[in-house]
Amino acid sequence: MLGFMRGQPLLSTVIHREKMAAAPVMMPYFGQQISSKSDLVPDWTRQEVSTGTTIMAVEYDGGVVIGADSRTTTGAYIANRVTDKLTRIHNKIYCCRSGSAADTQAIAEIVAYQLGFHSIELDEPPLVETAANLFRASCYRYREELTAGILVAGWDKRKGGQVYSVPIGGMLVRQPVSVGGSGSTYIYGFMDANYKPGMNKEQCMELTAAALSLAMERDGSSGGVVRLASISEEGVERRVILGNQLPKFSTH
Amino acid sequence: MEKHCTESRVKGVSTGTTILAAVFDGGVVIGFYLRSTINKVIQVHDRIFCCIAGSLADAQAITKAAKFHLSFHSVQMESPPRVMAAASVLKDLCYKNREELQAGFITAGWDKKNGPQVYVVALGGMLINQLVTIAGSGSTYIYGYIDAKYKPNMTKEECLQFATNALALAMGRDNVSGGVAHLVVVTEKGVEHVVVPGDKLPKFHDE
What we know:
The structure holds two protein chains of two kinds. By secondary structure, chain A is of the alpha+beta class. Helix content of chain A is about 35%, strand content about 30%. In chain A, the strands form two sheets. In chain A, strands 1, 4, 5, 6, 7, 8, 9 and 10 form an eight-stranded antiparallel β-sheet that branches. Chain A is globular, with a radius of gyration of 19 Å. Chain B is globular and about 50 Å long. By secondary structure, chain B is an alpha+beta fold. In chain B, helix 2 (about 55-75) packs across helix 3 (about 85-95). The interface between A and B is large, with 39 and 32 residues.
């Protein structure tokens, strides 16, 4: 019913295509004669592109706030310092991506296709839980090949704002607040101390911006700007907090 | 990326430890929580404590040698050793044998010349002076919290509350249940040991 049977061959072709596309892009243009083991090419040309990252999503009464840093790395090189890791899956459903850039982009594209198709069949906006389950289905089925940690968040009229976490391995769990990515370990304590149920949208935005800044300070794979978005019945509002505008904490 | 993060933590092996040392106005607070009964916080002199991170075997060997050096130094100087002296002794041992060793230390204490100090001797033998520092498997979870919450020149009560909260948060995430948190306060007046049982620790939002 969700076009999932059709989705299966689509998924494997897309994944193979992305992985194969990744290889020539990684090699330097002049490097056809140069072996990848050579010292002449930098280390990062041989590394997979990763969104080593910090992502966060918080539910509030009436919607969700999602946030991410903006650094994509290939080894020690920052391939993109203004990445947008908040990916639209549907009008009011977004996902935050962490892990392999290729894997997460591929999965997000596929789920967006499946969800769009399902929404047309249903003739109404899809549920966030449906989107989360589609992510989980792909992430679990191909768990051996994929490295993807995803937060699915959005608003639907049945349950309001919801955050679902689909970490590496393909588990699915709904949480009022969730963090992910390599930088997330550093802010569990901060999040536990500062999140309270019943916060409003602005408080959630501040909490997310503060938590992401702290993680970006400590995690080498996270950095750049903080991208925030809030999703509610009214729609999606996006914000960017630039480096010099990030909340500062006492430097000691 | 999450893979890198789990690799580095697996190398360290969760020993269910979190150690924290923080300077406040007039002294230092050393907080620690140990799942095991192995003693990782050692009093090397009257007002100097040394916390072990990393390989326990290496660290114990180093500490034994350091204690000897330090007491000898103290006799020669005819005065209590400085915190910096204790840290330097550890640093020398770690640096000279950096190829073989895998141990780090947090040295914290009070001395007459410089007051309360916290020094970190990292894995390769680097020595740095910091106002607040954390170590152990549970420490990764509270980097954000201490960055946000620590302020220089806190009062003793504020610092104790800060240390208790930080330890409680770390324990909550480091998969350790029950047990007891210890706080050691070192000031000019002396050493005070506060024990906080698990059920008296602050509770935070539990998902």
